[in-house]
Each structure stands twice: as structure tokens, then as C-alpha cells.
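Q: How would the C-alpha cells look for this protein?
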Amino acid sequence: MASTPTTIHNSDHPTIKQNKLEVESQLQTQEANDEVVFDYAKRGQWLRAGLLGANDGLLSTSSLMMGVGAVREDLKTMVLSGVAGLVAGACSMAIGEFVSVSSQYDIQMSQIKREIKNGWSNCQELQARKNELPSPTKAAVASASAFVVGAAVPLLAATFVSSYRGRLAVMVAAVSMALVGFGGLSAVLGRAPLMKSTIRVLVGGWVAMGVTYGFTKAIGSTALLINT
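A: Here is the predicted structure in C-alpha cell form.
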């Protein structure tokens, strides 16, 4: 009586199964190592200049316009105050970032020169470190550009609304949406809690605008009473 031949599937062969398990294990180990090696904190070096610059432009310009709008309701005055805030803030951010990064660059370059002089490191390693140093000019341009992007939000929102109350409402709504976007983007790129980061940025923006509006309104009312 002829015996029935046994069919061995390639995927069920012990050797092949073992190889598959080893490959999968190596892939999982590599993914875990990649996750550990990649330091998300490094993203803060460029997130700081970008997101903080945009947030600063958004909040400082909108708060300035809200403060001026608390005592002067005409569109021209509010828009001119916003434009002045945009230009002054962008220049301030650029100069501040340039000076800060230049100081950091000088300190690190001094350290590299000391190491070369004392022979603590080889030239190839030191050259690689030198190439990784931040550029003051690039940092200044990035910071100023981010500020302008943020400041443009309240300006564009208010420019085309003639009604005073409608202008304030549209501006607050536009700024709030931008704050949610900046907060969410910061959380996603930095692997931070999304909801917590977004709420923190949004509430902080509301407080800044509210305090500026209320304080300026109170000062303006007091000045009017004194004048009368």
C-alpha cells in the first residue's frame, strides 16, 4: 500500500520559521533603537525660534491692537498700531536672536580653538563640530519671519471689518484659531500632550489680550475723567 506523501509548506519549515522570527526580532530591535537614539529635545532648537517667534508676533500684535482699540475705536488707528507692532517686534526679535546666537557661537568657537591648541581632539572631529554650530544670520531671519507670520493674523483679520465690535470679535476668533494651530503643531512636533499644550497656549493668549484690553480701558477711562 503506497504511503501518502507529506507536503511541507515553506512557511511551516522549522528553519524558515526560525529565520523569520530572527528577522522580525532584529527589525523590532532596530526600531526601538531608532526611537531611543532620536532625541526629540533637539527639535526644540528650531521650534523655539519658529513657534515662539510666531506666538510672540501673534500675541503682542493682537494685544497691542486690542489695547489701542479699548480707547480708540476707528479702524485706521488700530491697524496702524498693529503695523507698528509688527515692524518693531520683527526687528527686536531679529536683533535679539542674532546677538544671542552670536554669543553662543563665539563661546563654542573659543572652546574649539582651545581644544585644537591643547591637542584634546583631532581636527576632523573639531571641524564636524564647527559645521554644526548655529548661524546667527539664519536664526535672526527665521525668528523675524516667524514673528511677521504671527503678527499678520490679527492685522488681516481686523483690516477688512468696519464695525468696531465685529472687528474685535473677528480678531479674537482668528487669533484663537491661530493659537490652537500653533499649540497643536508644537505638541505634535515635540511629542508633547496635544490637549494640554493646546489649551495652555490658548488660555495664555486669551489672558494676554484680556489683560491688555482691560488695563488700557481702565487707564483711558481714568484719563478721560481727569481731563473733564
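Residues 75-118 form the longest helix (44 residues).

The chain has seven helices and no strands.

Upvote if useful.
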